[in-house]
Automatic annotation (TrEMBL):
Cellular compartment(s): Cytoplasm; Preautophagosomal structure membrane
A GO CC annotation given for this chain: phagophore assembly site membrane
Family annotation (InterPro entries): Atg17, ATG17-like_dom
Organism: Sungouiella intermedia
Protein name stated in the entry: Autophagy-related protein 17
Subcellular location, principal: cytoplasm
Keyword Membrane: yes
Length: 471
């Protein structure tokens, strides 16, 4: 074979090899760019998105948790707790005390002779003189108030339980999402962070860094080999031109021959590089495919949680706050025209009114037993006797002596001086001496009646009976 034919053969082989190399290089470059895009752009962006969303979710979780604790404390400790305490410790005992006081009045009979209306033969109890219509109206209003508050309390507790249930579900979803984020996403973030650094922590291996670094080297090798093949082909074309005598340049045919003999090995090296790049793509794809689902899961869960948190805050909690405000108004309402801003709970205000009634009727009971009958006996029998005694002592004692002394004085004066005064004058004497002709008294009927002794004995027996009953 002539040198010209041999050089032409080298040229054809160089062209075919260069075309194959370009094809392999093009395929490899596409894979390199795809791998680089996945590892340097796509994956980092998804990681950044996951991190950003997770940060928002953490803020939402902290905010909602604090808000729920505030609402729970307000409802349990600020509304229901004080109301229940006021009802159980103030209002219920007050109502019980009132009933006890009324029972005492019901158990105490009142004799007819103590009643002004003597035209009745009815049997009376102390309770017959109680304004039961007022008490029953008050108790009815209290019952309505307690019923409304119980309904409000039950509704508050039910809605609070629903809120807590939603919050707990969100919290469980948040915990699961956070665990996946910490166990999967954070680990990938560390890998990607160290992949960009110039050095790794001692003893650590980084697959992403290795792939990117190796692909960069392989890309340079491809460029170098492609340049070498291009140069060899150009030299072959130049050699053909020289052999035709149309060029004055020189070519080392021995070098061309050796290079031509190396073409299969160079093409093989291209194939090896292409295979390594494809392997790296598979490694990168495997790395991403194993981790991206977890990242996507975190992203999706975070987006759902953010929507759930927003709906929870803007709808559920807002409705609950409106319910709380409405129930607070119910708990503050009362029918006794007491100011709601007095600082006292409504149940305490009701208890105050009930306690006032209890005090009044307890005093009624105690005074009737301990003071009223005694005072009545004193005014009807004891004092009138004292009065009569003083009156009798006065009329038959000092007053009588005064009259006798005055009468004697006048008689003596007339005897001594009367004869010296003409009869035409008004003379002193006994005829116009002041004297008691008639004594009219009132309020003594009780001791002057024919039944005075019986009436007094009856009253004293009642006093004795009541004292014995209380002792």
């Amino acid at each position: 074979m002539s040198l010209v034919d041999e050089v032409r053969q080298w040229t054809d082989e160089a062209f075919r090899t260069l075309e194959k190399a370009k094809l392999l290089s093009s395929l490899a470059q596409a894979v390199l760019e795809s791998t680089d895009h996945i590892l340097r752009d796509q994956l980092p962006k998804r990681l950044d998105q996951a991190e950003s969303l997770m940060s928002k979710v953490k803020n939402y979780q902290a905010n909602v948790t604090a808000l729920m604790e505030h609402l729970r404390s307000k409802v349990v400790n600020g509304i229901i707790g004080p109301h229940t305490t006021a009802i159980n410790e103030l209002l219920v005992p007050a109502l019980s005390d009132l009933d006890t006081a009324l029972d005492h009045l019901k158990a105490t009979s009142v004799p007819l002779y103590l009643i002004n209306d003597t035209n009745t033969s009815a049997l009376f109890k102390l309770s017959d003189f109680v304004s039961y219509d007022v008490i029953e109206k008050l108790k009815g209003n209290i019952a309505i108030y307690r019923s409304n508050c119980d309904k409000g309390r039950q509704l508050l507790e039910a809605q609070l339980d629903k809120l807590v249930d939603i919050a707990q579900k969100n919290n469980s979803r948040y915990s699961r999402c956070s665990r996946v984020y910490e166990s999967q996403v954070v680990a990938v973030q560390l890998v990607m962070r160290y992949a960009q650094s110039t050095s790794l922590p001692q003893g650590n291996s980084n697959i992403v860094r290795n792939i990117l670094k190796e692909n960069a080297s392989l890309e340079q090798e491809l460029v170098s080999l492609l340049e070498m093949l291009t140069n060899h082909y150009d030299q072959c074309v130049l050699a053909v031109t020289i052999l035709k005598g149309s060029s004055g340049n020189e070519v080392d045919f021995n070098v061309l021959r050796n290079d031509a003999q190396e073409l299969p090995s160079v093409l093989k090296e291209f194939g090896s590089i292409h295979d390594i790049i494809m392997t790296n793509e598979s490694r990168a794809a495997k790395f991403v495919d194993q981790r991206l689902p977890h990242i996507e899961s975190v992203i999706n869960n975070c987006e759902e949680l953010i929507s759930s948190y927003a709906r929870f805050k803007n709808e559920d909690i807002v409705l609950f706050v409106l319910l709380v405000l409405g129930c607070e108004e119910i708990f503050r309402s009362n029918s006794i025209e007491a100011k709601s801003d007095s600082g006292k709970h409504t149940a305490e205000l009701y208890a105050d009114v009930v306690n006032q009634l209890t005090y009044h009727y307890t005093q009624f009971y105690d005074i009737y037993h301990q003071k009223y009958l005694t005072e009545l006996h004193y005014e009807q029998f004891v004092y009138p006797r004292r009065f009569l005694k003083h009156l009798n002592d006065f009329l038959n004692g000092s007053l009588l002596r005064l009259e006798e002394e005055e009468s004697e004085r006048r008689r003596h004066w007339l005897q001594k001086y009367g004869n010296f005064i003409p009869k035409d004058f008004v003379l002193p004497g006994e005829y116009n001496q002041p004297s008691v002709v008639q004594v009219i008294s009132e309020g003594l009927d009780d001791i002057q009646s024919d039944t005075a002794a019986i009436d007094e004995t009856r009253l004293l027996d009642l006093i004795k009976l009541l004292r014995e009953a209380q002792s």
